[in-house]
Fold each of these.
Amino acid sequence: MPIPVRFSSVGPSEDPRYDHVALPKRALIAFTSAHAPLYEDNKETGMFVAEALHPYNVFTAEGFDVDFVSETGTYGPDWLSQQDEWLKGEDKAAWEGKTGDFRKKLDGMAKAGDVDPDKYGIFFASAGHASLIDYPTARQLQRLASKVYSDGGIVSAVCHGGAIFPGVVNPVTNHSIVVGKRITGFTTKGEEEQGVLQTIRRWDRMTVEEAAAKAGGEYVGPPGPWDSFTRTDGRVVTGANLASARDTAVAAVKAFDELENNRDEKTGSER
C-alpha cells in the first residue's frame, strides 16, 4: 500500500510519510521545572511568566486548545519575571488571578511522561534562564517535541527555550530537527549584559547560541539582545527574547496555517 503524504509549504519535509489527516488544532506549551539562584539575594530563576503567557494568549485567540507540560509536572516562577517592570496590567492580573484560565492550567500542568504527543499540532518551548538547566536533559519533553515534528507539526521555542533543540531528534535523520536550519534565541551578549554568563558556566550549561551550534543549526541573532526578532525555517519557529514571545507564537500559528492550507490544496478539501 502506498504511503500517503502530508505536504508543507513552509519548507521541505525530511520525511515524506505524512498522511492527509489535518493536524490537531492544539498547542502544547512546555515549561522548565528547574529553579536556581540567579539574582541578588539568591532570588531564583524559573519559568519566565510572560514568555508563556503571551504565547498562550495568541494560541487561544486563534482558536487553539492549549495544554501545559513540564518534565516533572511542576514549575517555579522566575523572580524577575514577576516584577512590575516585566509584568504589568492584564499580564499581572492573569498571573496573580489564580482562578483564571492561564493560572489554572499552569497550576494543573501535566508531567511530560503522561502526555500523548499525537494530540498536538504545535509544540512551544517557553523559557526563563532555568530552561538552560533542565531542557538539555528533559528526555520526555524532547520526546514530545520530536513526535510533534515527525508527525508534520510545528516546533517552536522562544528565548532560552532553544536549549531543548540538541535533544529534539528527527527520527528519519537521527539528528536534531534544527540541523541546517536558521534559528534564533537569547544572545550570549545579552547574558553578558545581564551579568549572568558566569553563573551559566557554573551550572555547566551552554548558552542558546552554543546549543544551536551543538544541534547543527545556524544561529541568527537579533539586531540587539532586547529587540523583537523571530525566524521561521520550515517547521521550526524561534524567537529571540521576551519581546519576541508574542511574535513567535504568531509566527508559529502562521506556519501551522500554511501547512493546513497547503494540505487542503493538495487534497482538494476546504477548511
Note: DSSP finds nine helices and 13 strands in the chain.
Amino acid sequence: MVSPDHEEAPHRPEAVDASTASTTSTKATTTAAATENDRPVRVLVQTRTHLVPGDKSANSMVRTDAMENLICQHVWQRDFDDYQERGWDYNCEFAWDSVECWFLVDHHGPDSTLPPDPPVLWYKWTGKEFVTVHDPLPRRVRRRIRSYPFTRIPPERLLNRRVPRPIQQPREFSSRAEEIRVQRHRLRDTLACNLMLTEDLARFAKENPGPAQWVRARVPPTAWARLDDPSQIAMIDEEGVAYMEVGSLGVLESLES
C-alpha cells in the first residue's frame, strides 16, 4: 500500500529503438506504395507517329513494343509484362510522320476480379518525356477506350504467342470480288505498318492495277516504293517459312503470331 504522502514517479513510456521504428515506418510506407502502384488502371498515352521510338523502316510491332516498354518504365519502373499488362494501340501506322496515335496499357493488378470501369491515367509523350494531362478525357476518346475490353489475356494464349509459327499460305477466296476486297486491304495495312511484304501480295499488286491504284492512293510514296525493291519481298519456302534476299545474303526471319 502506498502512503498518501508518497509521490508516485511519473510513468515513462518504454524506450523504442529509433532504427526499429524507422524501419517499421519505411516498410509500411513501401507496402502502401506498392499496393497503390499495383491497383487496376488504364494508362493512356497520346503522341505522334514520328515521336515513337524506333527507325521508320522498323516493323510497326517493334516500335509498339518499344513504346509499351517506355510506358511501363515510367509508371512501374520495369518493362511491359504480358502477364501483368495488356496493350492496345490506335492509328499506329508509322509509314506516315506526324500523325496522332494512341497507346493504351491496361494493368490488371493481383485480384482475380477486375473493376468494370478502372481509372485512366492520361499522358502525352513528347519524344523525350511523359507529361501528365489533367483535363477530362474527350467524349470520343472515352468511347474509343471502352471499345477495348479491360480483360486479361488467357495464359494459354500467351504461351501460344511465344511459339514461332510459319507464315500462313495464301488463302482461298469464295469469289473474285472477295479476293480483291481482302487483298487490297491486306496490302494497304502491310505497307502502312511496314509489315513483311509477301510474294502473293506483291503479285496481287502487279496483276491487279485497279486495286493497286486504290492502295497507292492510301499510303505514302516511300511505303509504295517497297513494291519496286526485290529485297523487300519475302519468299516462302515449302515449309511455310518466310525468308528475304538481302544483297547476296539469304536472311531467314523467324515469324511470331
Note: Residues 63 and 124 are 17 Å apart (CA to CA).
Amino acid sequence: MLESREWYLAAYAAEGIPTSDHLKLRTVVVDIDSIPDGHVALESLFISVDPYMRTRLTGLQDGISLHQFQRNQLINGFGAGRVIRSNDSNYKEGDVVLNPFSPVAEYCVIPSRFLRKLDPTNGIPLLDHFNSLGPPGFAAWLGIEVLGDPKPGSNVFISAASSAVGLCAGQLPKIRGCRVIGSTGTDEKVKLIKEKFAVLNHVNPHARIPLCGMISQYNKVWTEREGVRNLLNMVGKEVKMEGFIISSYLDRFGDFAEQMESYL
C-alpha cells in the first residue's frame, strides 16, 4: 500500500479561469500489492498540462468531443512514469513509460495497453517527449503530415506560431521545402493580421486548413467566442477545413515518434 496525492475535479468551471474551488488535492491509498493482469503500478515522473484539458473542466459538450472529467474523480493527462510493480510481461520494474491518459497523481495502477516504453539508450532527454515528441509535436505532425500534406514550394500559414504546437508546426513544412508564414498574439500583430493579411481573404484555391485547437477561446462560453466573417472565401476557393483531436489518431503515434526522432 502506498499513500498518493492526487488532483481531482471538485466543481466544473463553465467559463473563466479555473481556481482551487474547481481543482483540489487529496491523499488516497493505492494498492500496489494486488495488481490485475495486464496492469502496472507507476510512480509519476512528469505530467503535461495541455490547453485541451481546459475543455474537459466545463461540464459542457460545446465544441470538442472529449469526455468531461467527472466530479470527485481524479483528472488525467499525458505523462511519464516509472514502473514500480508489473503484472504484464512486457514491462518490468524500472521501465520508464509514456501514458496518454496518466492520472494526475503521485502513484497509480493502470492498464498497460496504452503505454509506450522508452528506450534509455537512445540519448533523447525525457522532457523532449513533452514537447516535440509529445502532445504539441504530435498535434503539429498530424496537422501537417497527415491532414495538410503540403507539397514542396507551397505556402503554409501557421496561427499561434510561437505556441508549443505552432513552433513544431512551423518547422515541419520547412523540412518539406515549403514557404512558412506565422502569426502570433501581440496586439500589433493581431491588428496587422486582421486588417491587412486576413488569412481567408488571401487563401489559395483548394487550400487545406487543419484545426487542432483554439486556446484563446477556452475560457469563454460559446456565445462569447469570436466568429469568422469571411467564410464565403472557402466556398468560392473550394477550401477544405478539418478539425481533429489527437486521441483519434493514437494508432499513428509510433509513426510520428519514429519520424520526429529522426529530426532530433
Note: The mean pLDDT is 88.
